[in-house]
Amino acid sequence: MRIDVITLFPELIAPYLEHGVNRRAAQAGVAVHFWNPRDFAAGAYRRIDDRPFGGGPGMVMQAEPLAACVEAIRAERGEAQGPKGSQAHSEVGPARAPVVYFSPLGRPIVHAVVSELAQSSGMILLCGRYEGVDQRFIDAYVDCQLSLGDFVLSGGEVAAAALLDAVLRLQPEVLHDAQSHMQDSFNPSLSGLLDCPHYTRPDVWREQGVPAVLLSGDHARIEAWRRQQSLQLSQDLRPDLLAKARQQGLISKADEKLLASKAK
After folding, report:
1. How confident is the model at residue 29 (pLDDT cuts 50, 70, 90)?
2. Which of 85-89, 95-99, 128-132, 195-199 has the lowest average pLDDT?
3. CATH 3.90.110.10 assigned to 185-263
4. Which ranges carry the tRNA methyltransferase TRMD/TRM10-type domain (predicted)?
5. At residue 177, does pLDDT exceed 90?
6. Is 11 a catalytic residue?
7. Quick one: pLDDT at residue 43?
């Protein structure tokens, strides 16, 4: 997998990739390249922003440096160049990596989005700044807009780092236990629900013990307990997840009995 990141501040993201799981992703063959749009701006000052038409506060990132940057990335990746819908874009060749722009207008970054991107050959991430990006560039080059949540950040770097972390940990040979992510919250193996609580040694900490079932060695009982906890936590903390799972037919009669038994 190859990921290209367009950002004015690569130093905000690059160190994050040098440790832990992210570092193992690089060792497993995932390549992350950083591109500064100033390198594609004209003039002695390498200006990449200007005042918005119609007035108003702040500045807007210009379309041309970003377009030139994307074209350079496409060329290095061996992909067809040109904006969406152009003749060059429609030519047969390697599948073009999607351009992902972090924006308050974007879809929320949820597990399904991360999983889809993790199974791709890569992507181009655009970290906006200031008041945003010239809409004409978005219309011509951006394939997908994503959002970290209903709040505004100073730039897309924090969202890019979060997405990178989520995508990289799903790559083969990155996690020590290849199956560990299957037990993550929101994973289809958990019907999209929250994960259960976890405990480790010692079995008594500050007079608080571990649930006895986890010490029983009875794997069937342990799995039932974990499922019940997942259901109950989702019902208490994220009822929207439980409702969605029910709509998708992922909650069985046995699950409903587990929920009912806890309620009593």
Report:
1. confident
2. 85-89
3. no
4. 1-243
5. no
6. no
7. 86
2-168 to CATH, choices 3.40.50.2000, 3.30.450.40, 3.40.1280.10, 3.90.1150.10? 3.40.1280.10
The predicted model scores a pTM of 0.89
**Omega before 108 cis (within 30°)?**
no
Find the mean pLDDT for residues 9-35. Answer: 92
Q: Which residue in 74, 77, 129, 169 is the catalytic one?
A: 169
Is residue 134 annotated as a catalytic residue, yes or no?
no
Q: Where are the domains of the chain?
A: 2-168, 185-263
Say whether 116 is catalytic.
no
From the list 10, 52, 83, 104, the catalytic residue is 104
Residue 50 annotated in ligand binding = no
For residue 85, the model assigns a pLDDT of: 79
* Residue 9 marked in a binding site: no
| Residue that has been written with the tokens 């289809």 in this structure | 188
Query: Do 2-168 and 185-263 fold alike per CATH?
Result: no
Residue 184 carries which side chain, given as an amino acid letter? D
